[in-house]
Specification:
Elements (H helix, E strand, L loop, with lengths): L1 H7 L1 E4 L5 E3 L2 H9 L4 H11 L6 H15 L8 E4 L3 H9 L5 E2 L4 E4 L26 E3 L5 E5 L5 H8 L3 E2 L13 E5 L2 H9 L4 H11 L6 H8 L11 E5 L3 H9 L1 H4 L2 E6 L2 E5 L3 H11 L9
Antiparallel strand pairs: 1-2, 3-5, 4-5, 6-7, 7-9, 8-9, 10-12, 11-12
């Protein structure tokens, strides 16, 4: 009796009257040691002087159900099948696996697997750094996943900040062996609500693509934090050659009228500065052609 109670409860006092207390971690420990809800209740009923209070019985059921929702494997080989039908067929043929999802199953001992019955498309060692298996399209937000090199964690990672495209991995326009995800304003809004940070995305891009985060992804992620943009009405002054642009940018008579340089022969000026610029250019003997306003 003492051994059984020590499994399911925590000792609190020792003396003429010994006290043990039922606690969540003590019940989890008993379940881990092979006990069940039935055996725990039976132990208390066999040695109890009164019936088990309803509150205690409810607590035992709650703790037991929480514990039984989690399965811990010290080791195992996880199989990812192409479809639920393929997994059902493998289990029907004798694969000693436990279903995890509709396409995932785990075998506790790899020695129980007869690999000659399988056509393996890839293997993963999760002790190694994340595999670089994602290519970024030119738009900077479309992510192409190489399914032969991806792992089970990648889908979970991508679903935090991107959306599977309508084609996905099985649509009419899908590329065989590829899955397409796209980063959108809506997916980033959801990601930010879940606590995804810019530093997380920067690390993810480095680990999974081998490249820095794209400018488009950075825009979507950091856009809400940017300062307001300013739209101005300005004119672009086109000159004949780069030397003339250099001179206008350097000469004191015109350099203060030039706001920015867009290229080798394109300068930005304010619309209000046109009369002054025309006068200064006339002093230089340079003709200014003005389009009708």
């Amino acid at each position: 009796m003492i051994a059984g109670l020590s499994k399911i409860a925590t000792w609190k006092t020792l003396g003429p009257a010994c006290t043990l207390q039922l606690e969540p971690h003590s019940v989890y420990r008993a379940l881990e040691m092979g006990e069940s809800l039935t055996s725990v209740v039976k132990l208390l009923e066999n040695h109890g002087m009164k019936s088990i209070p309803a509150a205690v019985l409810d607590a035992l059921k709650t703790w037991s159900s929480k514990r039984e929702r989690i399965s811990i494997y010290s080791a195992g080989a996880i199989f990812e099948f192409g479809s639920p039908a393929e997994m059902n067929d493998a289990i029907a043929r004798g694969l000693p696996a436990v279903r995890l999802t509709d396409r995932l199953a785990i075998v506790a001992r790899e020695s129980d697997i007869d690999y000659k019955h399988f056509r393996l498309t890839g293997t993963r060692d999760y002790r190694l750094p994340p595999e670089k298996c994602v290519d970024v399209e030119l738009d900077g937000v479309t992510l192409s996943v190489d399914l032969a090199r991806s792992d089970l964690l990648l889908d979970t990672e991508l679903q935090r900040f991107a959306e599977l495209t309508p084609d996905g991995a099985s649509g009419q326009n899908a590329t065989p062996g590829r899955a397409l995800y796209r980063i959108t304003p809506a997916s980033i809004l959801s990601a930010r609500a879940q606590g995804v940070t810019l530093s997380y995305l920067e690390t993810w891009f480095a680990q999974r693509t081998g490249l820095p985060i794209t400018a488009a992804a950075l825009l979507l992620m950091s856009g809400p934090d940017a300062s307001p943009l300013e739209l101005r009405r300005q004119l672009v002054l086109h000159v004949a050659n780069e030397h003339l642009a250099d001179g206008l940018s350097q000469w004191p008579g015109t350099r203060d009228l030039i706001i920015a340089r867009l290229g080798p022969t394109a300068l930005v000026i304010e619309e209000s500065s046109v009369p002054t610029l025309a006068q200064r250019l006339h002093e230089l003997g340079v003709q200014l052609n003005q389009p009708p306003m």
